[in-house]
């Protein structure tokens, strides 16, 4: 009972942190837009119809608030070249470009995307969070669809998502390394091992062995445990107000699905490939048709892995931040308790989804590995 109350206080505190963070970004963006609005109106002619002007300003303010909330949500979901902690607290990350040699410099040279960065005689500018090569004046050329046509160097930068992946990798190595060392002669876990060991056993007994089989499951346990805890921990970190959205980035989920796909195909035995290209027990006339269908399914499976994780985590972040943003859209703190309660419920649900998505990805990966190593009795 005490642990449940403690968890509730933790989640409530997390929610209380999230709201001010959105408010800080909202205030920052609002000031920026007001400055642009004042600058724009400085050159405008005075409006002689005061009533119509007030109505127009009211509609404009409402539109500005919605656009600020939208930009704030996009800012928190997008990857970036700096790690933003909170208002006024951030640190730059290394930009690594391959363009006539290796160019390495700090993202602080971009000054939040508004400055030109120079590296070994080459100039670069950031546009919509993408790096383009330019001249000393920072010129960008656009096509008829307003897309930059300047060359883009190969980008191997340590972005916010990459930085968080590296941090999580180190964290997991340290965590499970200490867990392994904490086992004494009597093989009983200590400290974090008491919490993690039941989960490890669950992955082994309920996911790996039933889907892969006792004969082959040990070959895949290291990968299944890694991908389960990696996705789960990153999903939990993504619920913090740091604006981290690693598992909601389709490039990350694509990489995880691709690794699973490669392991499956490399592990495939003779029966696995025979069931794809020349399925036994099927009339010869239908075997080519079945082969085409199985080949399509071969690529649909990793695609579904990629989209499922990406869509669920991205949608969860968008919904939570949108509901918080409604407080500022309505402009009245009288409705804030209702939105606060709804956000709290959805946050608790998102905690369940964070673990569920890790479980589903691991389960499907084990299922694919099991189909690759399964041995059939042909009569």
Question: What is the gist of this entry?
Answer:
The chain has helices at residues 2-41, 50-77, 160-182, 193-212, 218-237, 250-267, 270-277, 287-330, 336-373; strands at residues 82-86, 89-92, 94-98, 102-106, 116-119, 122-127, 130-134, 154-155.
Can you put this structure into words, describing what you see?
The chain has 379 residues and is mainly alpha-helical. It has 2 domains: 1-93 and 158-379, no CATH class; 94-157, no CATH class. Helix content is 63%, strand content 9%. The protein is built from 9 helices and 8 strands. The protein has helices at residues 2-41, 50-77, 160-182, 193-212, 218-237, 250-267, 270-277, 287-330, 336-373, and strands spanning 82-86, 89-92, 94-98, 102-106, 116-119, 122-127, 130-134, 154-155. The strands form 3 sheets. It has a 3-stranded antiparallel β-sheet with strand order 4-3-8, with no helix packed on it. A hairpin with a 2-residue loop joins strand 6 and strand 7. It is globular and about 65 Å long. The relative contact order is 0.10.
What would the keywords be for this entry?
379 residues, mainly alpha, three-stranded antiparallel β-sheet, 9 helices, 63% helix, 9% strand, globular, disordered N terminus
Given as residue ranges, the uncertain stretches (5+ residues, pLDDT < 50) are 1-56
What number of structural domains do the residues give? 2
| Element-by-element helix/strand order | HHEEEEEEEEHHHHHHH
Which structural class best describes the helix and strand composition?
A: mainly alpha
Radius of gyration: 26 Å
């Amino acid at each position: 009972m005490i642990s449940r109350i403690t968890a509730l206080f933790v989640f409530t505190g997390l929610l209380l942190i999230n709201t001010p963070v959105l408010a800080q970004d909202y205030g920052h963006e609002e000031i920026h837009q007001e400055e642009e609005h004042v600058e724009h109106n400085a050159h405008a002619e005075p409006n002689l119809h005061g009533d119509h002007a007030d109505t127009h300003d009211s509609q404009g303010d409402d539109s500005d608030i919605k656009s600020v909330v939208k930009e704030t949500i996009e800012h928190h979901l997008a990857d970036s070249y700096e790690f933003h902690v909170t208002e006024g607290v951030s640190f730059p990350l290394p930009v690594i470009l391959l363009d006539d040699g290796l160019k390495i410099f700090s993202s602080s040279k971009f000054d939040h995307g508004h400055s030109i960065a120079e590296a070994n005689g080459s100039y670069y500018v950031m546009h919509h969070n993408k790096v383009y090569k330019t001249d000393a004046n920072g010129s960008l050329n656009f096509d008829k669809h307003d897309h930059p046509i300047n060359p883009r160097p190969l980008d191997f930068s340590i972005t916010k998502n990459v930085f968080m992946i590296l941090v999580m990798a180190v964290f997991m190595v340290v965590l499970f390394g200490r867990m392994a060392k904490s086992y004494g002669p009597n093989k009983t876990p200590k400290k974090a091992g008491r919490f993690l060991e039941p989960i490890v056993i669950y992955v082994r007994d309920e996911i790996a062995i039933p889907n892969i089989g006792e004969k082959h499951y040990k070959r895949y346990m290291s990968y299944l445990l890694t991908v389960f805890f990696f996705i789960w921990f990153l999903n939990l970190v993504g619920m913090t107000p740091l604006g981290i959205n690693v598992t909601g980035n389709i490039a990350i989920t694509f990489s995880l699905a691709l690794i699973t796909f490669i392991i499956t195909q490399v592990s495939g035995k003779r029966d696995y490939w025979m069931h794809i290209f020349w399925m036994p027990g099927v009339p010869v006339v239908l075997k080519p048709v079945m082969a085409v269908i199985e080949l399509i399914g071969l690529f649909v499976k990793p695609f579904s892995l990629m989209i499922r994780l990406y869509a669920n985590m991205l949608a969860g972040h968008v919904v939570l931040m949108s509901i918080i943003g409604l407080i500022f859209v309505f402009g009245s703190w009288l409705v804030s308790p209702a939105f606060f309660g709804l956000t709290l419920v959805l946050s608790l649900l998102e905690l369940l989804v964070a673990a569920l998505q890790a479980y589903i990805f691991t389960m499907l990966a084990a299922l694919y590995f099991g189909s690759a190593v399964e041995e059939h009795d042909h009569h």
